[in-house]
Amino acid sequence: MERVFESKVREGLQAPSANTDFDAMWLAIEREVSYRKSVPQGTLKPANSKRKLVPALVLACFMFMAVPAFAGVAMNWNYIMGFVGIDNALNNGYGQRLQQSATSAGIAMNLNGVVTDGEKLKALVSFDPNDGMDQYDAYQIGSIGIADESGNTVPASSNLYFDQKSGKLLGMIESNDILQKSEKKLTITAQQLILYNYKEIPLKTALQTGANITTGSPDYPKMHIESLTKEDDRLIVRYIVSATSPDPVRLDPHLIYGSGNGSRGELTVLPYDGEGLLIQQIFQTAEVNQNETESFRLSYLDQTETKNGKWSFTFKGDGKKASKAVYTKNLNSGEQLQEMAGIRLEKLIVSPQKITLNIEEDNSMEQYKHGVVWYNSVTLAVGDKEIQGGFDLIGSDPKRYQHAYQFESSVWYEDWSTVPMKLILGGARVTKRDTTQNWTPLKQPTELKQSLEVTVDKFLIHFTYYLDGKDLVVESWSDSPGFGGISQSMLSVNGNEVYPEMVSNGPNYTGKKVERYKGGSGFENILWNPGFYNYYDSQKNVEVKLN
């Protein structure tokens, strides 16, 4: 599974005007992260190696690989997101190992273990081998509910995958923690097992910029090709696909090229305010003959079969013991981190499942002048062990999200107060925007391309500008090592700030940025500014002692 990084959501930020409400602006980013964060629970996952399914919007979740210590279970739980923390809690007595089984529609479902942490309840489940189950690409439990003995209920979601070695479906059910530091009898009820296979639809129209394609699919009936661009050794395809489903990402729509399973390249679902999905796919040109773009096919998961079973499990849940094991510490360290990156460490929280570092980020325009830093590598050294983690948003209300670094813990100490701990942040990517400098005057634009070079923070940026109809088009790029590209530039026209249409770069994009300023043919007295731009700076990598 690949992650689409929160830093890329920041690229979707419409540049501010003098009257911009910056709190509302950041809230919009957080809502975008919130939407993407929900996808891992709803996005269907691959069943086996027949097709590599890479869910397009997976934010704020991490996959950790480990050898499970789940005693007596000859199953590979490695691909369950968060299993390391679950396994750690169970091994140290802060959860419940269960061996309950229920059979319906000829299929046996098992409840293998349950853990809670005050925020989430997580249950490990499995389905026994069933003839033909390995022939599907993805699986989903139709509906899941968790109820306590008083009749209080919470909805739950699930992730399932097919384990080739055991022949079982393995997965995790997750809900808000209904126990909340108490002991209660709980009942988990699951209904329907839905089976999916990929469906492929040949496109009858060749791909070209501006093309409108009727696919014949009831789920994704139309496509509009926004652009088809060749850059160096890559073919970049951006398109809008319409969808009849209220959750269009879940079925993983994408283009594939070539015979057999074909290639899907590198796929990203970009921020988009309209109906449907805006998708970018990058293919290596060695994979694609541009003269045979009719060889592209639309592919997505199609519901193949439904097993109309109903499975129920009742057990006594214990949320007390795990809640008593939580270690917290207010943090006053990290002055260097706050100064160089605008990040303040607030609190350390250690539970049997995970270690959380609550942080506060300064995303003000004043901080952007100095640089807002995103760390691609987040590591926690615990004793002599290093644990990989990442950024997360905690909570369900976008207005009250807690920003944090989180780590799935595979170690446990009865007394954490004496355990050496150090935060290691690397891969620093800096985003800057400074309207007090970096302005470049432009000659009156015409249909002929005019080119300039400017130096910003020691990076040489090339850009070309010209009129396309009534619009001003600006293309920018840089060959300077470490430069990450322009997210959104801006103009000063007769002293007024003007912004282009927002086009997200997508992750790992380092090519040419093409921006369109509407009505640019009437612009006079034009100054250009790189606006939001990104670069890598190893000098901002930092280590902070926590304990």
TrEMBL record:
Keyword tags: Membrane, Transmembrane, Transmembrane helix
Pfam families hit by this protein: DUF4179
Ranges for domain DUF4179: 56-121
Transmembrane segments: 53-77
Protein name according to UniProt: DUF4179 domain-containing protein
Organism lineage: Bacteria, Bacillati, Bacillota, Bacilli, Bacillales
